[in-house]
Design goal:
The chain is of the alpha/beta class. The protein contains 9 helices and 9 strands.
Amino acid sequence: MFTKFNPMSVVLITGCSSGFGMLAAARLASGGHTVYATMRNLDKKGDLLAESTQRGGEVRILELDVTEDASTVSAMEQIERDEGRLDVLINNAGYAIGGFFEDLSEQEIRDQMETNFFGVQKVIRAALPLMRKTATEDSCGTKILNISSVSGRSSFPGLGAYGASKFALEGFSESLYHELLPFGIDVVLIEPGSYRTKIFTENAHKAQKSEDPASHYFKHTHAFRDQLRRMIKSKNGMGDPEDVAALIERVVNTKKPKLRYLIGRQSRLRLIIRALLPDRTFSSMMHKRIFGELD
Ligand code: NAP
């Protein structure tokens, strides 16, 4: 599956204060890559520093908020000054807002797109001039990894804004793959299922209106959250994020990666069932699973 190839690369990762970004940064640094681990709030660098020290690697930490032009451009300028190249860009920063469409405000949906979709485009736009130069020098396998989700291929009720942001990311990345391949730059989509990170806990976002008992979806929202809590508590309910970090590392070390890598216990099965079943049957199966006997 992987053509192994392992020259040391200069890597930039967004969203490294926790989760996949933090683990991937620590892994890649301990594997010998030069890693620029970025985060929007440098006060949160403690976990990343502890993780990379424990693995015997050293990361270079920069501030980067994917919704801010100035911090994106300034991180890129620093890498150009220090390294003169950028081999791998990993667009990992993101969050998920829970909420049914009628409970989500337009602003909440726009904010979700701003980070998960336009934020990725902002970073890629700033990185491409340097990556294009890198790809035409002695190529180390120049690539952009976009951390998407199984929700970018099959969306869940109560997670429509997040699903839309990841579907948009998938469509954009597929076009970009075709556009950049002739220039020696690969685009890769990593599509995880559910993994135990702060996205479901400390970093979880909720539609403000979903807290209102008058919402049409109040009971469904609570059933959804109960189901999520059960998944978090259950030993096998969610995967170990280290598996996703390991996949990211394998893709970085691969000369000719594929466009898509789906990862997660339930994800493959979900997509197969989704493709085989009629829409109504799939929907009622999913409703039973998430909302129990509410419908
Ligand atoms: P996480 O632990 O919550 O990490 C998310 C990271 O993104 C944090 O470092 C967060 O920083 C950062 N971030 C959010 N907004 C940002 C912004 N505007 N600029 C820069 N950084 C920002 O969650 P995770 O699961 O590792 O998520 C990483 C990626 O994986 C996301 O794109 C997510 O959609 C995707 N994903 C996760 C799962 C899963 O099951 N965990 C499944 C599929 C896809 P702060 O600490 O400052 O908030």
